[in-house]
TrEMBL record:
Keywords on record: ATP-binding, Kinase, Membrane, Nucleotide-binding, Transferase, Transmembrane, Transmembrane helix
Domain of life from the UniProt record: Bacteria
Residue span of region Disordered: 1-20, 294-368, 617-638
Bias kind Pro residues: ranges: 307-321
Protein's recorded name: Protein kinase domain-containing protein
InterPro entries: 6-blade_b-propeller_TolB-like (IPR011042), Kinase-like_dom_sf (IPR011009), Prot_kinase_dom (IPR000719), Protein_kinase_ATP_BS (IPR017441), Ser/Thr_kinase_AS (IPR008271), WD40 (IPR011659)
Pfam families recorded: PD40, Pkinase
GO-annotated molecular function: ATP binding; protein serine/threonine kinase activity
Ranges of residues in domain Protein kinase: 24-274
Amino acid sequence: MDGQRRTGAGTPLRPGDPEQVGPYALLARLGEGGMGAVYLGRGPDGRQVAIKVVRAELAQDAGFLTRFQDEVTNARRVASFCTAQVLDHGESGGRAYMVTEYIEGVSLKDYVKQNGELSPGMLHGVAVGVAAALVAIHAAGLIHRDLKPANVMLSFSGPRVIDFGISQALDAASGLTMTGQLVGSPGWMAPERILRQQVTTAVDIFSWGCLVAYARNGVNPFGTGDFSVMSARLVHGDPEIGDLPAPLDRLVRAALDKDPHNRPTARDLLLALVGGETSEAAVLGKLTAWQPPIPPAGPVPGQGSFPPGPLSRPLSGPPEGPGHTVAAGSGMPGGPGHTVAVTPERMAPTTNPTRPMPPDGGSPARRRGRGRVLLAGAAAVVVAAAVTGWLLTRHDGGKPTGAAGGSGPAPLPKAGLLVRIDRQSGWPSRCYGSIGRLVPTTRVAAKVISDDDKCDMLPRWSPDRKQIAFTRNVSATVNELWITNADGTGTPRMITNIVDGRTRSAWSPDGKKIAIVARTPSGRQIAVITIAHPETPLRLTGDGADKDDPAWCGNRVAFWSKKSGTQQIYTVDAGTAGGPWTQVTHDDHDVNDPSFSPDCRTMAYTEQPAKDARHVWLTPSDGTGTPRRLTSTATRDMDPTFSPDGTWIATARGETAHQSIWAIRVDGTGAMPVSAGDLGIAHPDWS
């Protein structure tokens, strides 16, 4: 199926098209094919998505529905940095549907049709980007089976492979991959597909060779014709690859070998395209050394003018709305200090965040050049991410870089979040909180403690994730610290009742102590409770200033205090009573909710410029350096928490009475809701 082929609004809905599929409103048509139609839709959270709706007659075929459901399940396993991420699926009005990320851009097919062959530089970027996508697809145990120019989108985040056809897991127990049904597109299928021989990942490599030759020459290397003509040429004919630059000439010929055993793998292609060396340093160094020029703003051929938004307005600090400003490193276009304005649907580089973008215009040839440079630059980002993903999954003895240290977009971690689940509305004036565990990749939250008559809140993982500490609000003047087993076994036990207010706790790194806000004659104090002997707490502070929100990492306990008039974040030595304080933040407004990164070097916190406004910021935890805002002024965020690998932040977003949990990468990308339900979910703890 030719999927997302247009930018903007697509084409209007036709008579008979549904206006709603499940919880998604349909806005326009994006494409149509043998399986059904693809629509531009809008989800309940306002996010634009692409929705594939299966034809009614196919929806009645139990065998097809089985394959379709397998496709959705399999596609969820593919890394999303080079493909359209699968978000949801279901059935509505007797028709199955699948929801994916909406990729704004133009298909390779349409681009070549409207503008002719690609320049050598852009061709190389597309070849690398598609090879990187195949690395991710094949690493997940899948075969695309229908790779063609219509299924490669040239977007602002680089080439993206979409529409997996009926891709199946290589080890699928159902055996559907080996049925006699032939699904694919004439001119792009490997000979073994036509001959009904064993299907392996090599069929995608053959399609890659056809696609790259087409991108350079504007025609399929086996010509044109009906299915029978093309089948004969694919099986018996020689391809015409034209004048391909090195090393693409050699790689395309190898990819188009009739014998699938002689073709390179996707990893082979990727390594050859980025220099042919096998060490991580060599591969990543090759990519980060590529500094493509930054293009002026202008329309990409085949797309029309950019709509109003971040691409056409000056940038003076963080943009309003859901976008963010990210300080890029040397691996991003423009080098260190370059600024990228990111929104959920587009990314626009600029070398000067305060300089307005040039207006649209210029000759078609000049606009074509702008589009090619822009896509080449975007490809650099995607390729770096793809190679990092490959390095993390390689089995040739290479040392993984680690999720936090790689240059590619980190996938959403599967590690569970602890949360407060509201049984009824009413927070904060009335509390009906239960301690729950939320799986971010499924958005499902389940209660860990079933005391439905209690007010439990602010859960915290123990360092080994085997226990949970939480605060229980008993009355207006009584609050208690409790501990329970994380697996729900055993009986929760109360540790101390000297907790002052609805405040959180913080485990020591060895899991033997917990920092709390204690009620004392001199006011609220940060104290350390030894779990085995809670009757003798160690008071870390002794002043009369208000304070709250302890966090613990290494030998430091962090908290906010009004010691200087406004709420600022400080740290103290965890083993010293009355020791000196280190001031971490120096903000003009109140700050709250400190949270350490797993390595203790970075602190996330919320700034509160107004009563109903809170935004997540990141800063070095030693008080040096410049803070960086992570979430925009259009959001209201509380209680940030790092993922266990340090690559994501989870935060409670929305009005206090009805919050949900969102996750965002520490570089400011990938913001998404990770909780679902009608009642509030808050107080997340990830690490």
